[in-house]
Design a protein that fits this description.
Elements lengths: L1 E6 L5 E6 L9 E6 L11 H10 L4 E5 L16 H17 L4 E7 L1 H9 L6 E7 L5 H6 L13 E6 L2 E6 L1 H6 L4 H6 L6 E6 L7 H10 L4 E6 L10 H15 L1
Parallel strand pairs: 3-4, 3-5, 5-6, 6-9, 9-10
Antiparallel strand pairs: 1-2, 2-4, 7-8
Helix pairs in contact: 1-8, 2-3
């Protein structure tokens, strides 16, 4: 994969990996949005998936949101609005490369980002989410036992996969501006695929159903039996589900 860099709205350099398929061979490109505290490589699984999709003639852009992975910025400054702007910059980059049929694929918080970004960007022709939360404030407040401070720049400690992480109070203020179900309702007539594991212990299954029922047609909801939030033992099955959906629609 080709290592690429592009600027976001704040002129921060975002790092990405682009599969080498030229747009004139197949204009379909998938932009992958990693999850909260994640990175573009997905511990190697995202890169492996990009190669899997390339085998069917589909290009992929993996990228790090600002403050994550190899991109510029500080993690404590992240926000949903910032993620949305970063994704728009990724779409800009791909259209400048000549890609016309762009699909956004987001895992967990990256899926919420994809849903919230697409209504204002008609260049995105379809959205797929894996284990995306719908009730964002409820979910993220559950990661901290602190009362939120009044100062927007004060740090809030949260429980992460690898110990405590810190975000500014402004992260929560920004979350309150968005309704994932409402944004999902604005996607139609563009297709939406919602994928969710029946043993997800992080995001309630009701969030997947809420996103699905809020969206218009065409829409699909696929529950992967026995899969956890990471799809740890089911990731190849999820790749197959996604590929079948892309081929059917595009």
């Amino acid at each position: 994969m080709e290592k690429v860099f592009f600027l976001n709205k704040k002129r921060q350099k975002l790092a990405g990996l682009l599969s080498p398929l030229p747009p004139d061979s197949n204009p379909v490109l998938v932009i992958v949005c990693h999850g909260f505290t994640g990175s573009k490589e997905g511990r190697g699984k995202a890169v492996e998936m990009a190669r899997f999709l390339a085998g069917s003639g589909i290009s992929t852009l993996l990228f790090d949101f600002a403050g994550c992975g190899e991109s510029e910025g500080s993690f404590e400054d992240i926000s949903l609005s910032g993620h949305i702007e970063d994704l728009k910059s990724a779409v800009d980059f791909c259209t400048e490369r000549g890609y016309t049929d762009i699909i956004t694929l987001g895992r967990s918080f990256g899926g919420s980002t994809a849903i919230c970004q697409a209504p204002s960007d008609t260049r995105v022709k379809g959205v797929c989410t894996w284990a995306a939360p719908a009730s964002l404030m409820e979910l993220f407040l559950g990661f901290t036992d602190e009362d939120l401070p009044g100062d927007e720049n004060e740090l809030v400690s949260m429980a992460g996969d690898e110990g405590l992480i810190f975000l500014k109070r402004s992260f929560f203020t920004d979350l309150s501006k968005y309704s994932v179900p409402h944004c999902a309702s604005l996607l139609s007539p563009r297709p939406l695929l919602v994928v969710f594991g029946t043993r997800d212990s992080v995001v309630p299954q009701g969030d997947a159903r809420l996103i699905y029922h809020s969206a218009g047609e065409p829409r699909d909801l696929l529950l992967v039996e026995g899969a956890d939030h990471q799809f740890s033992s089911h990731y190849r099955a999820v790749w197959e589900i996604f590929l079948e959906w892309v081929i059917k629609l595009f």
